[in-house]
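Objective 1.3, modelling of assemblies. Example input:
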Amino acid sequence: MEKAESNNYNITDLMKEEKDLPEGSYKLGFKSVTSRGYRIDEWTGSWVATALVYQIVSGIVLFFYYSQIDPYHSTLYMIDDVPFGHIILTSHLYMAYAMIALVYFHMMRQWFVGTYRGKWRWLQWMLGVVLFLLTIFTAILGYMLANTAIAMAAVHIGILFMQRSVMGRILPGNLINWLEAILIGNYTTPALFSHLLALHVAVFTSLMLGIFVVHFMLFERSGLASDKPKKGEMIPWFPTNLLYAMFSGIVLVGIILIFAAVFPQTLTLAYGSLAYGTFPVPDWYITPVYKLMDVAGYGLGTGGVPLLIGILMFIFLLPFIDRYHNKGVLERPWITAFGIFMLIGIAVMTVWGYSQPGLSQTRLMTLYLWWTITFISFITVYAMRFAKRDGELIENN
Amino acid sequence: MANDKNYIPEPEKRAFLKGAGLSIAALMIGGLSVERYVVPKDRGVPVMDNFPLAILEDPSGNRITTDDVIKYAAASPSSTSTPILVFNYPLQDEPNFLLVLKGVKITTPDRSLVPSSGYSPIPPSSKAPMDGIIYTSYGGSNYSIIALSGICQHLGCVPPFLDYHPGNSIPFESKLIGYQENAPNTPAQWPNYGLIYCKCHGSQYNPQWGGRNLYNNGPAASPANHSLPQIMLATDSNNHIYAYGINSSNAVIRTHLQFPNGETYGSQVKSEDLTGGTAIRTSRSPTAYPSSLVTGDITSSSSAKILSTSSLDLNANSSGIILYRTSVVSNENVNGMDWKGSFSGSTSNNKL
Ligand code: FES
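Predicted structure (tokens):
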């Protein structure tokens, strides 16, 4: 049984000088790994990074044509009149979807494998959660930019959340006013879209990039969680590791471009238009949160917002909540059960939110739903543990 | 430890942490105090002094009359979603429903239908009168024309998410969350002249009660807890329709709660409704404003209320009242009947 590594909370250790360098020097290294490090599940992070790079490049192209004065029509213009505009816009959207899906994948993989402990991995995990939130926020900002009916609904919801949710009630009024002014300015159409654009392309993106660099460097510092460096067996970072990352990234971009070419994006209704029969639904990565509001509060009458904050805090503090001594999936039954709970919960909420957005549910229904998911999550983990132990017993006899 | 060359002495570490803590605190306090420098000066300031007097036009710029609206509504079946008519007021991008309640004359909400408990949001002392509605007689029956905000009082969803279901056709979603059309003990809860239902999170409003929010005490509570703002309407002698204000006994337009703890009802409603947005367009013929307007029953002068536009609380300059205009749009085609000027504006953009 593999023991979990212990955390190093002494951040100043990060500033430790390298022994082989002159005194006072620091090194940001790219580490070599053993061949085990080339397993596909060790590369979830590299795809997220590829997605980020692709979003920046395609985003710059789109930025050339976007106009905050006439957001809807400039988006139409990109689709209809800019050379390759339609495929760039569509791939920007699909890569955003892929990025969010990959972030989930990356996160759940670390969750189950338990790589968020040891060295500075706890810090890397926490920054990762921040990156996860930034990714979602950036995506939502991008989705607001087109001035479609659903985009403006999202803007309204954003403003009202600031004013009326827990946030607006706890934080001082002038701070909220400031935050709101950052989001919407004085709320005229050009001001609103200039602000959304600046936040989407500059503010959130630079934050994301900055934190990503730290997240990545911490990874290079701590190394692969499951890799045991051995003398003579290491594969050099350059060029193998780099090329591997680039080629797997190119495959991802290729897949997205194929999807973008086959299923070009159609722009939904403009804000203010009324056509029936085309009822836009929020993007899939929002529907779980959206549905969570309908099935609010675990059936406890707490409302969806506290539940959401609770779940996020749990994820954020996971490295400290997980106090199991061992590393394996089944050696950490509660953590794994919560992971399964997350997986089922997100999937159920996404599909349900997509098929019945905004349909309030009765408390009883909500209660059944949440407790069933909880029950299933725990029962699977304990059943597997039982089966494993049983197997071991049989083997030993 | 001490002979490790990377060893950083305790006091230095403490100083570093102290410094970091102080800087963060300073940033936060500084952030609060510079609020007035980073927030634009025109933020939170109304864009006009008073509600605009706006004439309702079709998308091609022709003035519409009460007859146009009623004809359009009469052509639609009453069992499904009606062709919703929407216009912006008091500012741009502030949609409102122009609703026609068939077969009923409404001057004040029927108080006898309003249950005495469970509908707390409207203060009991205020009557939320249906002031400014127009009703007339067309083809032998009565129609009431009212205008209610198309911005949901929960989280601000707009048409087509917020939708009007005419007659007593209760939307499927609404039934699904537990209301039965003919439940013996709740008949009074059912709107007789349509329901405004929000597909976003299920808020429900009764247009017959002045946009009052329904079912806060239902099995699945309506998330909104305020009534829809009501736009006051009037006509001139040519039966042209004007919007001239917002009933302050209803709530402020939901997306206009400019500050946390801003007023939802009462004296601040006007300035809040007029804050944060862009004024609608002014009339191409600025001199063509009416001297008097009528609200109430335009076919029988006894119950009509004459408003002198000069005495109304409106924007005026030295040459008189400024007349604004706003387009009434609809989804394209209902039962073969196009809305005037065949609204082709934004919907045609959806066909890519
Ligand atoms: S926005 Fe209408 S119910 Fe939530």
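Chain B has a mean pLDDT of 72.
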